[in-house]
Amino acid sequence: MEWESDERELKAAGAEPLPDGRSGLRIHGWEIESRKRSILTSLQLQQWEEELQTSHLPEMVFGDNSLVLKHVNTGTKIHFNALDALVGWKHEALPPVEVPAAAKWKFRSKPLQQVVLDYDYTFTTPYNGSETVERNAEV
C-alpha cells in the first residue's frame, strides 16, 4: 500500500518532505526515509550467500529496500534492512519448522517425493533493527 500526502497535510503535522527526491519526511527533529529498490540479481544473491555462509535464502530478496529513522541533531540512526535481518536469522539457527499437516503428509508420500529442509525456511529472526551514529550530525 502506497501512502501519498500533499504539502498541506505535512505542514499541518509539522513535517516537510525530504529534499533531493528522497522518499520520506522530516518531523520534530527526525528524518524518516524509505528506500524501495528492485529484487536482488542472481549475482547479488550469490554474494549474499557467500557473506552469510549459506545456500538458503528467500526466493525473492529486496536487498536494497530499507527504512531509516534518523535523529538529525545527534546523527543517531535506527534502520531496518534485509541483510541485517538475515544475519540475525543465520545466527539464530532455528531448527526447521514442522507443520502438523506436513507430518501427516510425510507418512503418505514415498521417500523419493519427500523434500528435506534442514534450515528454518520461515527465516524467523530476532532482528529488531540496526543502529549507527553519524559523526557529522548537525549541532
UniProtKB/TrEMBL annotation:
It holds the Pfam family TIP41. It comes from the Eukaryota. Transmembrane segments: none annotated. InterPro entries: Phosphatase_reg/MetRdx, TIP41-like. Belongs to the TIP41 family. This is Type 2A phosphatase activator TIP41. The gene is LOC102597299.
